[in-house]
Design brief:
Length: 259
C-alpha cells in the first residue's frame, strides 16, 4: 500500500506537461511577516471542445488517417490547456500595507505573484493580484516535445472569513494570457510512431471563475477550490494556422501551515 501511494506521488510530481494551477488562498492576505507553506494536487478536466485522438481510417473505405489539422489541434490542446493531474506546492508571505507575495509550482508552471487586499469590513475583503509564470509545456509524457513560454494572470477575489479564521470563502474572476513557443511531434501519416519535431508557437487566453473554501484551526488549514475556465488558443504548428476553443473545470485541494 505504501509503495502504491509513493508511486502515485512520484507520478504526480513528474507531471510536468499538465495544467491545473489553483490559487488555494482566501481573499484576505497574511499578516506582515507571517509565512504560509502548502502542498496539494489539482486537475484540469476538459468538459467542452474536446479534440478526437488521431486514428487510422478503414483502408477498405478508401479513407486515410486523421487529418494533420486534427492532430495539430489536439497537440495545441496538450501544450496550451494541458488537461491532466498536477502537483501544487506554494509558499506565501505577508507584507506591510495589506500586501502579500507568493511563489507556486504547479507542474506546468512556476508562478510568482503579488496582491493587495482592500478591507470591506471586519470579515470581508477584496483582493487584486498579478501573477507572472514561467511555463514548461514540454515534459514527461510529451513524446519529446520541447515547448516553453511565459504568462500573466490577474485574479480578483471577494472573500469572507470567520472571526477566528476557522473558515473562509472566496470567489471571483481570473484572467490569464500565455505565449508559447518551441517544437512538438505530430503523428506521422499512416504510422503508429510520432513524426519528426516541427516548430510550434501560439497564444493562450483563459477566462475563469474561481470558487474556494478553507477550514482549519490556528496554524493548519485545508483548502478546496474549483475554477470553471474558457480557453482560446491560436497559433501555428508546422507552419499551418491552428486554433481551439475549450472549457475546463480545475478542482484542487491542499493543506497549508502558517507560522
Amino acid at each position: 500500500m505504501i509503495q502504491r501511494w509513493a508511486a502515485g506521488l512520484v507520478a504526480i510530481a513528474c507531471a510536468g506537461c499538465h495544467g491545473g494551477g489553483p490559487l488555494l488562498h482566501p481573499a484576505h492576505v497574511l499578516r506582515p511577516g507571517t509565512v504560509s507553506l502548502g502542498g496539494g494536487v489539482s486537475g484540469e478536466m476538459l468538459i467542452a471542445g474536446a479534440v478526437a485522438a488521431p486514428r487510422d481510417a478503414d483502408a477498405s473505405t478508401g479513407g486515410g488517417p486523421a487529418t494533420t489539422e486534427d492532430a495539430a489541434r489536439r497537440k495545441l490542446s496538450e501544450i496550451a490547456v494541458a488537461p491532466g493531474v498536477a502537483p501544487w506546492v506554494s509558499g506565501r508571505v505577508g507584507i506591510e500595507g495589506d500586501n502579500e507575495a507568493g511563489l507556486t509550482y504547479t507542474g506546468r508552471a512556476l508562478r510568482l505573484d503579488g496582491r493587495h487586499a482592500f478591507s470591506l469590513g471586519e470579515a470581508t475583503a477584496l483582493s487584486v493580484g498579478l501573477g507572472a509564470s514561467a511555463l514548461f509545456a514540454g515534459g514527461p509524457g510529451s513524446e519529446g516535445s520541447d515547448v516553453h513560454g511565459a504568462g500573466i494572470d490577474v485574479p480578483v477575489l471577494l472573500g469572507f472569513r470567520s472571526d477566528a479564521d476557522l473558515y473562509a470563502l472566496w470567489f471571483g474572476p481570473r484572467l490569464g494570457l500565455e505565449l508559447l513557443g518551441g517544437e512538438v511531434r505530430l503523428p506521422a501519416a499512416g504510422a503508429a510512431t510520432p513524426g519528426p519535431l516541427v516548430d510550434a508557437s501560439g497564444q493562450h487566453l483563459r477566462v475563469g471563475l474561481v470558487l474556494g473554501v478553507r477550514g482549519g484551526f490556528r496554524h493548519v488549514h485545508v483548502a478546496l477550490e474549483a475554477t470553471a475556465t474558457y480557453h482560446h488558443a491560436a497559433g501555428e504548428i508546422a507552419g499551418a494556422p491552428v486554433s481551439i476553443d475549450q472549457g475546463t473545470i480545475v478542482p484542487g485541494g491542499g493543506l497549508t501551515v502558517t507560522f
